[in-house]
Design brief:
By secondary structure, the chain is an alpha+beta fold. Helix content is 36%, strand content 14%. It starts with a helix and ends with a strand. InterPro entries: Papain-like_cys_pep_sf, Pept_asp_AS, Pept_cys_AS, Pept_his_AS, Peptidase_C1A, Peptidase_C1A_C, Peptidase_C1A_papain-like, Prot_inhib_I29.
């Protein structure tokens, strides 16, 4: 064996060892980041096999976040957030919950085809119902698929503040347990059915009186009888009409349905969300404002029910005046609001 050959063998071995060390260092670094993430979010696993599985999912999501954020052509950013150890399939199965009802609607509630804001001609250039004290703190539905209850409750809370001057934290659990008129508790539901129940019950009680437990249960009629807010009916915003939705949102918080199951949605962190969704409505949120960014991008402001450590403190800005009449993620397809 010549000297050059020996030298090449030695160099090749050293290079291979160096590469192996770098790969190991990267793997250790990711494992450390996962440990830090677990501590931050209070996550534990049943055994080492489960932990290794979640580490691989975490790494895949982290790679996806870095890829999207480094593209540089988006108006929003993603992060390794509280859902980073879930596959998108797992996320979709537990964190949404909107279902358009197929049940015939009762005629006991004040339901009409009218749109009370149809004649509105002037609206403010921006609106943020948080600044007007009409939005309670961000809540977390957990693994109960009852986003519909949180969306409806936030809309009623906002209207109650507007009408009475008092911001009252109302009970989602009451709706999960008692608003069974076409809804399925932790297994999906519809905001209009929730509004209809509140009308029939002649009110909704407080969160303190009927606290959220993130699971189905039997309706406690005694707790449900202690009303803290009332509505007389509800109306639907004309479908596929962002202008109509704007008129309504200028006057009160609005319940809206969206397609909110995509990977970008799952890992959203900040900025104006501009894509990664269709119009297969599966999640409910509350529209609590709108505005225009410094670069001229128009957006809606939505309150979600995934806790404060998702998005912008629990909120998302999403593109407004989208090319499709349905709105981005279908936000203009199935909007409604309570009346009092």
């Amino acid at each position: 064996m010549t000297f050059i050959t020996v030298l090449l063998v030695i160099l090749g071995t050293c290079t291979s060892q160096a590469m192996s060390r770098r790969i190991l260092e990267v793997e250790v670094s990711i494992a450390d980041k996962h440990e830090e993430w677990m501590a931050k979010h209070g996550r534990t696993y049943k055994d080492n096999d489960e932990k290794q599985k979640r580490l691989e999912i975490f790494k895949d999501n982290m790679d996806f976040v870095n890829k999207v954020n480094n593209e540089g052509n988006r108006t929003y950013k993603l992060s390794v957030n509280k859902f980073a150890d879930l596959t998108n399939e797992e996320f979709r199965a537990t964190r949404t919950g909107y279902m358009l009802s197929t049940e015939p609607r009762s005629t006991t509630a004040e339901t009409t085809s009218s749109f009370k804001y149809a004649s509105v001609t002037n609206v403010p250039g921006s609106m943020d119902w948080r600044k007007k004290g009409a939005v309670t703190s961000v809540k977390d539905q957990g693994e109960c698929e009852c986003c519909w209850a949180f969306s409806a409750t936030a809309a009623v809370e906002g209207l109650t503040k507007i009408k009475t001057g008092k911001l009252v934290d109302l009970s989602e659990q009451q709706l999960v347990n008692c608003a069974t008129n076409g809804n399925n508790g932790c297994h999906r539901g519809w905001m209009d059915n929730a509004f209809e129940y509140i009308v029939q019950n002649q009110g909704q009680t407080t969160e303190t009186n009927y606290p959220y437990v993130a699971m189905d249960g039997t309706c406690d009629t005694n707790k449900a009888s202690a009303k803290a807010a009332k509505i007389t009916g509800f109306e639907d915003v004309p479908a596929n009409n962002e202008e109509a939705l704007l008129k309504a949102a200028a006057h009160q918080p609005i319940s809206v349905a969206i397609e909110g199951e995509g990977r970008d949605f799952q890992l959203y962190a900040s900025g104006i969300f501009t894509g990664g969704c269709g119009t297969d409505l599966n999640h409910a949120v509350t529209l609590v404002g709108y505005g225009v960014a410094e670069d001229g991008t128009k957006h809606w402001l939505i309150k979600n029910s995934w806790g404060e450590n998702w998005g912008e403190g629990g909120y998302m800005r999403i593109q407004r005046d989208y090319s499709d009449p349905a709105g981005l993620c279908g936000i203009a397809m199935q909007a409604s609001y309570p009346v009092a």
